Every structure is written in structure tokens, then in C-alpha cells.
Amino acid sequence: GYTIERYTPYALFELRRSAGGADPFFVPDPAGDGPVDLVEGIVGVRYDVSTWSALKFEAAVVKPKGGDAVTSGTLNWAFGL
Prior knowledge:
Layout: E1 7-16, E2 38-50, E3 53-64, E4 70-79
């Protein structure tokens, strides 16, 4: 994202399509249903509280193929030296 004073807005879009078959990265359980086709969108904003601390809020929507969309929101406070 591009920083506007202390704010950094950002967005992410992911489209995942599988060719079928087992995939140990996305589905590590061999007894699982196999790879899942999905569409995911994330929007968020980061606020720099200081040079060593930031608050981040993001909202996400994940829609698996043939399933219902799942929405979520996350608030994160990161800090360090």
C-alpha cells in the first residue's frame, strides 16, 4: 500500500483454481477432500502509532466453490524494538 501520513491502506485479491489430485501444501491430510477452489478478498488499513508500534484492521471474505461466503474481521497490534 501507499502511506498517507500515518495510514497505509491495502487490498488483496486471490483466485485459487486446482487441477484436481492431492496437494500436500494446501491439503496436508491425505484423507481430506482435496484442493479447494476459492476466491478471497481482503481490505485493510494499518495505522502507525509510533516508529515501533502499529495497529492494523482488516476485513476478509472467502468464497469456496460451491459453498457459502465466510466473512471475518481482524484487529492486530504489533510492536517491537
